[in-house]
Specification:
alpha+beta; 7-stranded mixed beta sheet; 5-stranded antiparallel beta sheet; 8 helices; 26% strand; binds zinc ion
Length: 384
Amino acid sequence: MNLKLKLYQTVFILLTASLLISSACSKKESTSSSSSSSNSSSTTGSLAISEITQTLGSDGYYAGSFVVPSDGVSFILSVLKDNNGSTAFYTLFDPDGTDILSSSSTPSLSGVASGSFGGSGYANILVPQSPSFSTKAGTWTFKAYSNDHVKLGLRTGTVPSSTTIVVQPYITGTTWSAGDLSAALSVMSSIYSANGITLTINSTITISDSQYAAVSGTFTDTTTTALVKQGVTTAVNLFFIEDYSGSWSGVLGNAAGIPGSMGIANAWNGVLNSLSAHASGSTLDSQLLGETAAHEMGHQLGLFHTTEKGGTSFDILSDTAECSKNSYDNDSNGQMSAEECEGYGAENVMFWTAWSSSSRSAGKKQETLSSYQQQVLKYSPIAK
Ligand SMILES: [Zn+2]
């Protein structure tokens, strides 16, 4: 486990340092209140958003606290910096006095949560991001680096036996229209349903402004920010863009974080899925597009790749299959294909890459989630 965490940290620090992406993970291709003195708060469903008042300490950190009630289900604690400068949390102590961002704590989100290693303009901490964590009732306290806002999204109540997540699709460009997404949305809905989660999929919203037809996969990009900010606060927003721009072209999809933002209208409140990357001529591969949308939504809600590209780092869940380079890189190319990992996680929605086209033609799919993956989704702040 320590090894896993170290590897994640290395990967993410490199990404952050080069300002490529803020912890977002792209499928396939090259990458990857209750506050003590809260001001305005809003509630949608059982998710309440509040801004936490911070005080600048003599140690140079901004400090704040919030109370999780006895019926707390989950929370996402976000730190934001308006100019997209680097920001992060320094500590987050639970009511028992454990700093879950410290590498010496067990369990720990050190190097796992973007709120630990930092992001450009945005970073967060999700509890629970695995069954090892829980929303302990009582006062949580944090220290954060330079920022403009810390916001808490707190879900309270009970976890119902049947979980529902609302999804809001959007489509850009002129090549395809809303009706062309129907089959893929059905595939995505079936995948989640088979894993114990009901999706309520809103009617697709068409965004016709031409500047959004092809956008960068970098969520701090001005145009991408303007697009994703249009997302609603009551759903997981899926932006089906006609294509990515520039070097992102060919990537199937990417999410704004692991997790991205939930319940707040901002640049990280959604995922991108490229339609061009799923097309043969003018025909969309609805099975693959549905799997990609399911995958990116999994990231947006806090799920990591079960196995990363190199076969040397894995997710933080103990019940997902791991496909290690040492055991399964049969062609020794340092890259774990779905074919090499058949039976070792390639069937999982959150495997790092898709099956080859010939395997897909032969009926291979990525539609399964482990029990712990399902649990992270069922406890999600945005779920009901
Ligand atoms: Zn991914």
